[in-house]
Amino acid sequence: MTNTPGPTTTVTADLALGLLLSATRNLAQGDAYVKAGLWAQNGDDPLKFWGNNPQHKTIGIIGYGTFYLLWGLMYATLGSGISARHWQKEFCH
Questions:
Q1: What pLDDT is stored for residue 36 in this prediction?
Q2: φ and ψ of 40, to 5 deg
Q3: Where are the alpha helices (DSSP H) in 4-93?
Q4: Burial code of 7-43, b = ≥16 C-beta within 10 A, e = fewer?
Q5: pLDDT digits over 34-83, tens only?
Q6: In whole angstroms, what separates CA 3 from the centre of its chain?
Q7: Architecture of domain 9-92
Q8: Of 63, 51, 60, whose CA–CA distance to 25 is shortest?
């Protein structure tokens, strides 16, 4: 992210959190697999696309502005930690 002016900050943080969850949980790959009909054909393990659990993981944020403050708080609600660094201060949660 570079700059998210006022009204778009929340929407951008929602989208960024959604992309993080999609990447860690392999949602796009699982969706394509099911849509291709491979799930019914192969009878695969339901945990095949389980992915990684972002819970209890700590993420680092550099440049802690309004967007990252909001995004970090959303990420922390997953039970995860954040460690952020701003040029004026340091924040750990």
A1: 86
A2: -70, -35
A3: 9-25, 27-35, 38-42, 66-76
A4: eebeebbeebbeebeeeebeeeebeebeeeeeeeeee
A5: 888 887 777 667 677 788 887 788 877 777 677 777 888 888 888 888 77
A6: 19
A7: 3-Layer(aba) Sandwich (3.40)
A8: 51
C-alpha span between 1 and 4 (Å, rounded): 8
Rounded CA-CA distance 1/22 in Å is: 18
Closest CA to 12 of 91, 20, 53: 20
Count of all residues that appear for the chain in the document: 93
DSSP 79: T
Average pLDDT of the segment spanning 86-92: 60
* Nearest Cα residue to 67 out of 22, 2, 23: 2
